[in-house]
Amino acid sequence: MTAETTGAADPAEAADPAEAADPAEPAVTPDAPSPRALARRRRRASAARFWREYRKHRAGVFGLAALVLFVLVALTAPLTVGSDVDSVTDAPGQPLESPSGRFPLGTDQFGRNLLGLLIWGSRVSLMVGLLAAVLSVLIGALIGITAGHFRGWYATVMMRITDWFLVMPTLVLAIVLATVLSRSLGTIVLAIGVTTWPTTARLVRAQTLAVESRPYIERAKALGGGHWHIMSRHVLPNVMPLILAQTTLIISSAILAEATLAFLGLGDPTVVSWGGLLQDAREAGSVSSGDWWYLVPPGVGIAVVALAFTLCGRAVEAVLNPRLGVSR
Question: Which residues partner with 107 through β-bridges?
């Protein structure tokens, strides 16, 4: 008997064409996450892994806790001490009062509360240090990546300029810029930022040369990847850990540089900063008269913040590059 007499259908004809899957096409499940969801998941996993490794460094955790405390104090300064704490005409105390219950850190030469000035000055010192460090790292990263990618005469010129900045005293260049330009916070940020980038440029260029020697860079160029694609999609993600670690290390140097310039009288006289408080204490003769409460608190604040950023920077560098063997 034939299939027609028995009523049995041909297996090829019985199959639904819509259900017949093409073996060349990958199976798509309705519950599969989107590429963006996968990217977010990977970023969350990477951040969790980074924090897990960071917590193993006790010094880094201590530095981070100190920074969080200082940042909270600086952000809440308008609520805790008020914006008129630097007013000379409405000073609540007598000049150079020693620490007491009313004034835990004493008063300055105008009778202002030094504890309030110290809290208010943390806003300026932290802001200037952060902005100057970001400007320095941006300049250094841009020059380092482009010099490592293009090479040739461009790299030669950029590296000779970098060498010139390296051999010149950074503080002297910053003093010259702060003297020539107007006295403002923007001038301080610019003076520090444009004089502290050479170290970052050298490190980033060395890392860029190492990245561009890898085989996948050659494949990207062979597939038609342009200069911008190579630098932004392949080089920058690989040098970003170095840039991040360098930023945390430069912030401490920037805060010290801001305090030095303010101590030398090159800062903005209309704002209160830790370096400005030290300069006011020097002018008031606190060193010779023994008014320690005018000198010690700003100096301790500068030292603690600079140490905290340094500890965080070393911990970040150890997590992102375990081969350094930084102690915990």
Answer: 113
